[in-house]
Amino acid sequence: MRSLKKSNAQFRKAVTRLPLGVASNFRYWGPDKTIYVERGKGGRIWDIDGNEYIDYRLGYGPAILGYADERVDEAARKGMDVGGVFALATELEYEVACRISEMVPAAELVRFSNSGTEAVMAALRVARAFSGKDQHLIVEGGYHGIFNEVLWYSDVKAWDPKSGDPEVLPSSEGVPNLIKQLFHAVPLNDANVLEDVLRKHGDRIAAYLVEPIMGNCCGISATPEYMQAVRSLCDKYNVVLIIDEVKTGFRVAKGGVQELMGIQADLCTFAKALANGYPISVVAGREDIMRKIGDGVVHGGTFTAHSVTLAAANRTLEILAETDALANIAANGEKLREGINGILTARGIKHSFAGHPAMSGLFFNPEPPLNYREWLDSDYEFYDAMAQELHELGILVEPDSREPWFLCEAHDIDCVEETLDKFEQAVDITMQKSPRDRGKATASYAQ
Ligand code: PMP
Q1: I need a labelling partner for 63 at 20 to 30 A (CA). Which of 27, 141, 181, 278 fits?
Q2: How do residues 144-167 score in pLDDT, each as one tens digit?
Q3: In the 8-state DSSP scheme, what is residue 167?
Q4: Residue 51 pLDDT > 80, yes or no?
């Protein structure tokens, strides 16, 4: 058994000053399992007990090149010399905006924020202002940040399919119930349901907010046909199509999921991989829509376009645009999938993958789900138990099966081989335990 003695002691200390002993609820894995990190490098992290892990969480996706990437950190250090934020603009903003527009054709105009949450908030506000409508549409199982308008979930676990749609509940206390009048939730990949909702409520719906590869729901993916239908339905009902690329952006392709699926958003949001972990995000989109900013819509903030994060974004985007980093990540992700496939097939365990090799969802079901309702058919309890064994063996995946496995450039073939060796052990240990003795997920909501 791995020792978490120092992490446990740190937890007991930290919880006296910080709710749950951490800075984000999702980092709390219980008093005995919460990990405190000493450092990360490349595709690995070390905790304060000295345990080494190959990390497939990557901070929920940002470290696209790897932790402490020297190329990006050097640029960030130079950004520090610029001096921070001035409540004035700098020249580099234009350069980074141009890089983004070159990589993502939908990003005709660009604005910076600090977090994914802020970018999505801005996108929704701009969409409302542009369309003159108030409501928005979200997808069941989606996650778009930690603000009231999207902090809702479809309770598929308690859902009886005979009783209609799953109940939609707030993910947090303190979210005003009134917000429920502002949105509708639809299942992914059902254009008929989408059209029904738009037919009934389209004159009040400003935006359809969607992650075509659901980075918080096992990588469940929209089909390209569904996204084509979404595009034309949004046009037909004058609904702004917001593609949330906070996780897929600068990860699944240079032009993100939009390039992968041949689709163009009206507005799109980016964050995580944009600066290899430095906190910066982007709302971007069609010129006529984005020009609402400054023409009625307020957008900004003290820390936007900080000289350190902007410099890091500039260098990260340069690397992603000009090298084969993303192709190499996808190739290693594919090798990992092939190895996992071999191990599970040899044991007669039905399984499938969803998403993209750079952010892969693993299902214990022969076919990947098409939407969150179908996720219930997968043996996610086996997954959750196996995740606990992987942690013991030094492979860090999210304890909740809804979070895909993220790969970075630093996850080389040695990482892949070591992972496969340990994956095989974890599967065998989990199979040997009776369901009652298996570990349970320690995190209840992926981010
Ligand atoms: N959108 C998506 C698709 C996300 O995955 C996340 C966070 N995981 C967010 C928005 C919110 O980003 P942040 O945590 O940076 O606020």
Answers
A1: 141
A2: 999 999 999 999 989 998 889 999
A3: P
A4: yes
From the CB of 189, is ligand 1 less than 6 Å away? no
Does ligand 1 have an atom closer than 6 angstroms to the CB of 120?
yes
What 3-state DSSP class applies to 269? strand
Task: Using the mean position of ligand 1's atoms as its centre, give its distance from the Cα of residue 17 in Å.
Answer: 26
DSSP sequence for 346-386: HTT---EEEEETTEEEEESSSS--SSHHHHTTS-HHHHHHH
Tokens of 392: 């013991």
- CB burial of residue 86 (10 Å; 0-12, 13-18, 19+): exposed
C-beta of 212 in contact with ligand 1 (< 6 A):
no
Residue with tokens 């402490």: 68
CA distance 36 to 46: 9
DSSP state of 237: T
C-alpha distance from residue 218 to each of 24, 61, 355, 391 (Å):
21, 13, 7, 19
Predicted pLDDT at 376: 80
Ligand 1 contact, 255 CB (< 6 A): no
At 259-310, the pLDDT tens digits run: 999 999 999 999 999 999 999 999 999 999 999 999 999 999 999 999 999 9
Judge if the beta carbon of residue 60 lies within 6 A of ligand 1.
yes
Strand bridging mode 267-270 / 281-285: antiparallel
Average pLDDT over residues 350-357: 96
Per-residue pLDDT at 176 exceeds 70:
yes
CA dist., res. 244 & res. 271, Å (int): 10
For 307-345, write each residue's pLDDT tens digit. 999 999 999 999 999 999 999 999 999 999 999 999 999
Residues 6+ apart with CB under 8 A from 16: none
Question: 214: CA distance to ligand 1 center in Å?
Answer: 11
Whole-number Å distance, alpha carbon 117 to ligand 1 midpoint, is 6
End-to-end alpha carbon distance in the chain = 28
For the purposes of burial, counting CB atoms within 10 Å of the CB of 163, is it exposed (0-12), middle (13-18) or buried (19 or more)? exposed
Q: Is the CB of 150 under 6 A from ligand 1?
A: no
- With a 6 Å cutoff on the Cβ, whether 400 touches ligand 1 is no
Output the DSSP codes for 83-118.
TS--SS--THHHHHHHHHHHH-TT-SEEEEESSHHH
Contact (Cβ atoms closer than 8 angstroms) between residue 141 and residue 212: no
φ, ψ at 147 (rounded to 5°)? -130, 160
